[in-house]
């Protein structure tokens, strides 16, 4: 079976799901896989599906609103579903494209150097020491991994990586659920929403499984 046939088969299977499973599948594409989609997010959305929510833009807005209303620990668990910046294994197709790891035919981006990947590994580790219970989330928006590494350095207040490892790791930790910690969590949640919105602009509607009418969407299925 060729790739086109596989795509048609997968789409057919998605459209044969019941509304709840279709909703979970659509939300997983937009937000990455998380157990909280099935246990919390979808159950809070399903009552208004096809009534108040009758297009994908309304679905996304409602999902972001629901996530923003969760207790801090639920929000922290949810954002952790996104892969760390610089990860190269076990990425979803969308995450790989966003981190510029797509095949050359899909994204003409140079391969990330080992030095940048190592810098990102260290920066992620240091960030997670400073903000215990959080992972660094940012809306990449076409930037290279080296540009994101620079953003992380600014966040941590350091100029380099290798020479500053000990200093970063010894830095004073931000108190969990302190004002600064919650502000950083809320920033990450906002960026998760931006990532999902960007995905919605790119994903063919046939991949999302929910039978909204095409006229409601700002981007038509292709």
Automatic annotation (TrEMBL):
Domain of life: Eukaryota
Ranges of biased composition (kind: Low complexity): 95-110
Database matches in Pfam families: OHCU_decarbox
Residues annotated as domain Oxo-4-hydroxy-4-carboxy-5-ureidoimidazoline decarboxylase: 20-158
Region (Disordered): 93-113
Signal peptide residues on this chain, from the entry's feature table: none
Keywords carried by this UniProt record: Purine metabolism
Family annotation (InterPro entries): OHCU_decarboxylase, OHCU_decarboxylase_sf
Entries under SUPFAM superfamilies matching the protein: UraD-Like
GO-annotated biological processes: purine nucleobase metabolic process
Presence of the UniProt keyword Lyase in the record: no
Name by which UniProt lists this protein: Oxo-4-hydroxy-4-carboxy-5-ureidoimidazoline decarboxylase
Species the sequence originates in: Pterulicium gracile
């Amino acid at each position: 079976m060729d790739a086109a046939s596989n795509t048609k088969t997968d789409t057919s299977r998605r459209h044969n799901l019941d509304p709840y499973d279709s909703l979970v599948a659509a939300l997983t594409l937009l937000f990455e896989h998380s157990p909280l989609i099935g246990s919390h997010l979808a159950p809070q959305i399903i009552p208004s599906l096809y009534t108040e929510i009758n297009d994908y833009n309304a679905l996304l807005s409602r999902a972001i609103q629901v996530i923003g209303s969760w207790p801090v620990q639920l929000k922290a668990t949810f954002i952790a579903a996104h892969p760390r910046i610089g990860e190269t294994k076990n990425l979803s197709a969308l995450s790989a494209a966003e981190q510029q790891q797509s095949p050359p035919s899909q994204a003409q981006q140079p391969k990330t150097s080992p030095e940048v990947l190592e810098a990102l590994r260290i920066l992620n580790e240091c960030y997670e020491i400073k903000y215990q219970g959080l992972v660094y989330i940012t809306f990449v928006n076409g930037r290279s991994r080296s540009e994101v590494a620079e953003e992380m350095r600014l966040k941590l207040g350091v100029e380099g990586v290798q020479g500053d490892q000990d200093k970063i790791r010894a830095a004073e930790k931000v108190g969990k659920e302190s004002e600064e910690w919650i502000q950083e969590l809320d920033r990450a949640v906002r960026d998760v929403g931006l990532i999902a919105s960007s995905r919605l602009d790119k994903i063919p509607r046939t991949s999302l499984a929910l039978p909204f009418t095409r006229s409601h969407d700002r981007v038509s299925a292709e």
